Every structure is written in structure tokens, then in C-alpha cells.
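so the lab meeting is tmrw and i was supposed to have these ready like two days ago... anyway. pasting both below. for each one the top line is the aa sequence and the line under it is the C-alpha cells. i havent really looked at them closely yet so no promises
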Amino acid sequence: MGIEPTLAAWEAAVLPLNYTRGTVNLPVPPPSGKGRGTGLRFRWSDLDCGSDHGGGDRVRASWVWGALLATLVAADTVHAAGGARPAADWRPIVSPAQQVFPALLIATANLRAPAAQPPDGVLGDPHGMVGVALAATRDGQRARVSIEAPGLGAPSSIEVVLPRAGDWYQVYPTMRWDFARLQDQRRAAPATIEFAVEVDGQPATRRVQRVRLRAVNEAPYSIDDDGRRTDLSWMFAAYVDEEHPLVQRILGEALAAGHVDRFDGYQSGDPQQVYRQVFAVWQVLARHGMRYSSIARTSAAQDAVLSQYVRFLDESWENRQANCVDGAVLLASVLRRIDLDVQLVLVPGHMFLAFDLAPGGERAYLETTRLGDVAGKAGQGALLHNFQQAVEEGLARHAQAQDRFGRADAPEYRIIDIDAARRLGVAPIAMR
């Protein structure tokens, strides 16, 4: 099979998992008393990996996380000890768009170390999303940044040296998030984050930033940067959870029903055996009574951040409902457990599943919304016909869109390789 088209910046690499590169210019005034002021270039991160089915498997990654500052606002409250003039100008950073997405924090908590040094002007955690933009008033200025998100984690701080007077720097402490607490966030709610900056040992200036805390089910997948969309579609890999107890239950039901004798992944070397294993899982879901429910996109900050509500595996199973994303995530979780290579295929307003028929070989596609087209008590012949229709429809959808995958001008067309995501450190949210 051919290799999907790629972003222009990475001509040779397939990009099923991708965070596009770019910069945001924030015009800022020069620090007090300095004639030279520079607009700090806030650099987007690059997260890039993939599987080259045309000639071996490879992963290439460059990750330098920058903050989204296009909508940076002044802090709600400012306190300076004794009315003293602040030693340096600074602004809070909460990205994306003054929102905290628990799913994004959990999924990226174990990202592997950056392949390259952060760009000039970025200090501290290269994956940071909460920090400050700070202007130096002299060369070699020392600063301490402290941040606290009450109820969401422990106080976090970092001490840095700002090399050049007149320049602005992004400073990110490694945030000590309470990940168990973030996993429990099932509804959106307001929250506050407290910032304190000490410069050259002077009393700290403090600011409080109001933010929107999103639900853990909300997956941010696209960010608008002054008319340019930045791709976060790899976030959907965080909802694939091959270790969830439900996965083993589904496999056990398939074996007990005699749909297959065993789940052996690719060991047989027979693509038809791969199909049989996928069909065995399909039958369990169909007989359980899984039904399609329409997709529900959630918007944030006037669509500056597009997000999708994704059900966790047990929610889909217990409710017997799944939209296209939920169904693809559920099937991907089960198929990964039996060592099949799976991908989530994203097209505008829709998602379906892909799986390899052999390691690095031909790829099949599956339209998961076909689940529920036949009654759960239907005979195996009817279910097989239903499965074949789902395979054919998935193949047709991919063929229709195949020239758009990975293109910089088509950010809504992505093939998200779950194995590549795991190797980069994109972890399952692991709800139980």
C-alpha cells in the first residue's frame, strides 16, 4: 500500500500523529527603562511520528511545547508588596486559550524528552502549558516563578536566569498536577490559578487568572491561531485503553461464544485469520446491542479550541451507545490487546477505524457506525453481511479522502497511529 501524503515540513515521514509547527507573535512593550523591546515569538511544539508501511517502521519526533498566547489577557488581580513598582513586566500563560483540559495534561504527562533543545526564550518544562511570559530588565537576571492551582495539584515553582535584558521569556515550572483529581473531572467548571514572580530577590508580585476547567471526556483536537488551525488530533489516542478490564471481558465473551478458537494476532500469517478475529469482536459488540448515536462536538472559547466529547469504554458499553469516535476507540482498544496494529482515521466530522492485516502490510478499514444496523439476536450470516458492509464502506471512505491525509492545508484529515502514539509517550487516560 502507499504512504499517506505528509506535511510539507516532513516530506519523508508519515504523520498519523502530528502537532503542527508554527509561531505566534505577541507584540509587547519594552520593559521599563529599556529602549529595546522585542516581540517574543511563541513557538508551537512539534509532535511527529508515524509508521512507514512502504519500507519499514520508523518514528521521528521533535517536541518543543510552546504556549498558546494569542488570547493572553491581563491578570484579574495584581498585588505588589508595599505598593512597590514591579521589578519586571510579566503575564500569566494558560494554554490553550485560558483553559485547562485534564485529558491533555494526563495524555502528555509521560511524553519522552524533546529531541532538540527548546528554542531561545523557553525556560523550564518544555511540555509546559501553564507558566508566565517574563521580560528581563538586565542581563543575567534571576527570577523565581511559583504557580498554584488550588484543588488541582500541589504548589509548583522554578528558579531561572534570564540571559538578556529587554527580551521576553516563557517560563514553565513542572506542574505537580493531581492526576487522580483530574481524572475525576466529569463536568466543565470555573477555576483559578495563582501566579507569583520574584525577581532579583524582591518581594513577589502576584496575579490570579480565572480559567475554564474542562471535563476529562473532552478531547481538544484543533486550535485556532489567528485563522490557522493547529492539529491536536493525536489526543484521541489517549482514549484508546487496551488495558481496561472491559477489553478482556469482550475477548472472553468472543471465545466463550466460539466466534474464534483463539486470538493470536498476526501469528498465523494469514490475513483472513486477522479478519476473523476482528469479526469475532464485532459480533460481541453487536450482540451486546451497541447502537450508533450522533457525534457531539463541544466548542470552547468561541471555537478557538475545538473539542470532542469522547465516552470512556465502560460508558459506551454500559449505555450501549457509541458515536463514530466512541466506537472507533472501543474497537481499537480491543484489537490492540490482541496485538493488532490499529489506527484512528479522522475526516471532517467523522472518524472510523483502520487495522493492518499484516505487520507493515496491507491495511483494512472499518466503518464502526454500522454497529447496530442489525439486531443483536440476528444470525451469524446477517452479522457477517453487516461486517462486510462496514469493511467496504470504510475502504470507500479512505479511498475518497486518501489524497488529503497529512496535508498541511487539510488538518481535518489525519490517520492516528496508536502504536506510534504510545512510543512517544501519549498515555491512556485509564479511567476505571
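ok protien two:
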Amino acid sequence: MSVTLFTPHSGERIPGWWLRLRGFRIGIYRFFTRRKVVTALITGSNGKTTTTNMLARILEEAGHFVGKANTEGVYLGGRQVWRGDSSGFKGAGWVMTDTRVTAAALETARGGLLTHGLYLRHVDAAVMTNIGLEHLGDRGIHSQEDMTAHKKRVTDAARKAVVLNADDPHCRRIARDYPLERRILYSCEPDNLFVHNHCSLGGRAVCVDGSGDSERLILREGGQLREILPVAAMPSAMGGLLRFNISNALAAAGLALGMGLSLEAIARGLSRFRLDAVDNPGRFTVLRCRGRSVVVNFASNPISLQTTLPAIAAIAVPGLRLCLVTAPDNRAEDHFALIARELAGQFDRYLVFLVDRYIRVKAPGWAVDEIRHELLRAGVAPELVSTHHSLCDAIQSAFAGCAPGGLIAILGEGLDESVKCLEKAARDENGHEQLLSATNNAIEIGGKLAPFVAPPKSEE
């Protein structure tokens, strides 16, 4: 399927003439070579980046030269060529105008849609992962129904397959807007009635089947069941503990099916996808630093916390458990209260830190003070909550108050910045870094041993 780039609707802040010129040149090239790029868009509130990364790995296993754009940057053929949020028009423009790309996985966020509009007219497949409470009240979107309608513009662009989360009520509500033959559902609930009715009519769904060690991902097509792979074979699921990554894997598998890939390629991709700095940086990345377990998770919204906190709680450590948390200030009024309710009682100490790029609509430090205030309202003792002007300052304080054998959870910041601050805090008196290699260390998670993830080398 050929893909056409077109000009953003408003607020153009990028060299649009450059992208249009490149798009015209590549369009002429593709017309004469009959070159096609299979393309998928990924939207929703949570899980977009991981789903994009999983799909890219599956496409690579199928033999494609993959272009990927997400909140971490732009990747061509597995190599990062641009660092920074690229989940919109700029990232897609970079990917789609590279002549080597044969398949594209493009994260599509709310902000880019509002600023530039939908940047691709038609794609092969698109997924809506879920609809949460983030960003409500911002730029004319006041309810989850409004957000669903806004993000539905992405799934409306899909011509071969629309993939929807049958566990999310807002995704279920729009499912019948698409023909049965183009609709692919996914669910982590083995007895999901909506999926059952869909498949009884001849529809397709990717689901979880079984329980415990026998849990597996399957394809349901009408009355037929076909195994994709066991959950135990997916490193990203950590033996089934990370339920949110099982859901993300189902979304990626649904997209891959809609793009015409085989079950074998899907199984290979998911079995080789890891929670490391290469495949999925900052999405439940586990490190070890100066004898402490460190979990880095970029998302810190209430829905994300509901899924990640049980996994963090399952990490067995003998020492204290500290939480370092932050959030942007342009969130709904109850957002910070919901965060605090999820976090309260889960850790021994809370360190709320400021991130300069999260200062968007309020005064500097407003979000930090708000999170602290809501933690106190949720029942956390005042002496257990501190505020810090940066992540590095918070990590230094965490190391001072948490002896080796403890756990530090960094919520709301990415892996690159976290590793830079960890390396600064880990230098001993001789100036040597003491971040441990992943190769000879293991962590007990949910009663099982899982390898630590090797941290990337930061760039000073």
C-alpha cells in the first residue's frame, strides 16, 4: 500500500517545505519502482511505545528494513538516528521519506494529532490500546469520549486491519464502526464475552489462553485456535508477572497479523524482544547500582501505576524501598491525587523531583508541590516525603538513605537521564563508576530469577 504524506493542518513549526520536497521526491521514486511500505499506526493512552517497539522487532524478524518513530526517537534499520519525542509528524516524515524502509511502525500521540492533524491518509493497520484519564481538559478534550473520538482518527486511517483492546470499554464502543473482516480484537481475559461474540461471527482475535506456566498467546479465528507462543517464552512478560506487557504483545501481534505477517515471525519477534536499553528503554528497565535494585519506568500516570506497582512489589529485596516520582504539570485536577493514592503505602520513602521540560503551564515546582500535597492527603507521613530540584539530586538523596540491598523506583523519567544521574551518584572516591554489568547478576521477581538489564553508556 502506498502512503501519502500531506501538510499539517495548523501550527507548523517544522521545516515543512523540506518534508514536502523529500516526500515529493520519494513519491516519484516509489511510483516508478512500484515500491510499497507496509505501515502501522499505534495510538492510545498507555502502551504505545512498547507496542511500537514490539511490532518493529516482529517486522525485523520477518525480514523488513524497519522505520520506527516513537517517544524515544527515530530508528532506521534498528539504528537510532534522532533522539527525542518523535511520535508525530516529524518522526513519520523522517521514516516515510527514507528509501530503504520497507515497513514502518509509527507511534501516534495525542499532541501531534492536535497540532498537525493526521499525517498519513491511509495505512495498512492501526491499533488503539486504551483510553485513560491523562490530558483531559487540555485543548478542548474534556472527557474520555472526546479522547476516544480524537484518537479514532488514527484507526479510521487503517485499510486492512483495525486492532482494538477488547478489555477497554472505550475501544469496545467503537469496534462496531469497522467491518468484521477488518476488525482484530485482543484481550488478556480468557473469558472475554465481547471477544467470544466477535469470534462466533467469524472474526479474528489474539488472546491469552491457559493459566500459570501453561499460559500462552493464541489466535482465535472463528472457531479455530492456533498457538502463537507461550507467555513463558516472552522475556518482556517476566514469567507472566508483567501483565501490561502481555497486553502490549497482543496488540503488536494483532497489528502484525493485519499487516500480513506469519505467526512464526510474530513468535520469533516476541520471543527475542527484551526489556533492555535496545529494545525498550525506560519501560520497566531493571538495573543494579551500588548494591541496590533500580527500576526505571517512564510512565507515572494512574493506569500505568496500577499495572507496574504490583510488579515492583514482587521484586524481592531485604532493604528499604524508595520511590522517586515526577509528572508534567498540564494534567487534570485529580491526576495528582490519583497518582498519590496508587503510591501511598507502597514504599518506605517518597522523593518527588522536578523535571524542567515538564514545566508547561504552571509555575516551576507546582507539580512537585502538588504531588507532595496529595501524598500527605493519602496518608503518607510528612517526614517520609521530600522534594528535590532535579532527578540527580533525588538519586543522591536516595543513595544516602537507602543502604545496599534496597530498591529504588524511578517513575516518570526516561532511561537516558536516569542512567546519567545513577552514574554520577555511583562514582566512588577514585572517580570510578560502580554500575554493575547485567551479565553476572540476577534479580528475584515473583519467586523467579530474571537477568538484570545492561544499562546504556550515557553521553556526557
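from a quick look at the 2nd one: The CA atoms of residues 405 and 449 lie 16 Å apart. The first strand starts at residue 38 and ends at 43. will dig more after coffe
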